């Protein structure tokens, strides 16, 4: 008996958007209007690329960015939940699928000593360039019309499950924990025995209920959470069964 936990990162594991948190490093803690207004829907990664160039041009160094990122707060109850998963790793495989980037997630998880809880992190690859600014690439290319062009979480989840099956690993249940609109695509991929756990009051919960109202509900069960303690209670009940 093994369960797969799939986590989003921003507004799920941490209680903020890591990409907008980094703006605290900018001069006067804000971005110029021209830069802020340059975002185009579906092209967040490109927009953040411009933000990172701006920070680099203004002399913001890697160590300052790291100090800022590691002050980002975890969501209520998340530290307890991740501790619980870490103590029960024989039952839980755990992955992150996020539209953040490798550098930010790595910094945050390592600072809190949670990096060993997660078996794999799927997110946009990032690195510091020779000029000292952070550069972010698209995670992959895909043909899904519902997702931002750099990341389809459904494709990531499907490829991970296929790879695990080749290794002889299958899961009793998949538990998907997220909050955003880009989490709906992988949730619609889940089967009857799986469970989606959308964060209360966020876009994913609203989208799932809109599907139910339009008589095309998701196949999986749905359990809403407001604190990660709600998720931990559910996992504890699974282990008892």
Main attributes of the structure:
241 residues, alpha/beta, six-stranded parallel β-sheet, two-stranded antiparallel ribbon, 10 helices, 8 strands, 39% helix
Q: Which regions contain 5 or more consecutive residues with pLDDT less than 50?
A: none
Main structural class: alpha/beta
Number of contiguous helices: 10
End-to-end Cα distance, whole Å, is 11 Å
**Adjacency order of strands in the biggest sheet:** 3-2-1-6-7-8
Shape: globular
Content of β-strand: 15-25%
Q: What is the helix fraction of residues, given as a range?
A: 25-40%
Element string (H = helix, E = strand):
EHHHHHEHEEEHEHEHEH
Give Rg in angstroms. 18 Å
Q: Please describe the biggest sheet, giving its number of strands, its sense, and whether it closes into a barrel.
A: 6 strands, parallel
Mean pLDDT: 95
Total strand count, please?
Answer: 8
Topology:
Elements: E1 3-7, H1 18-21, H2 33-36, H3 44-57, H4 62-69, H5 78-87, E2 92-101, H6 102-111, E3 120-124, E4 126-128, E5 134-136, H7 153-166, E6 173-178, H8 184-189, E7 195-198, H9 203-213, E8 221-222, H10 228-240
Helix pairs in contact: 5-10
Structural description of this entry:
- With 241 residues, the chain is α/β, with parallel strands linked by helices.
- It is 39% helix and 16% strand.
- It contains ten helices and eight strands.
- It has helices at 18-21, 33-36, 44-57, 62-69, 78-87, 102-111, 153-166, 184-189, 203-213, 228-240; strands at 3-7, 92-101, 120-124, 126-128, 134-136, 173-178, 195-198, 221-222.
- The strands form two sheets. The chain has a six-stranded parallel β-sheet.
- α8 (184-189) links the parallel β6 (173-178) and β7 (195-198).
- α5 packs parallel to α10 (228-240).
- It is globular.
- The mean pLDDT is 95.
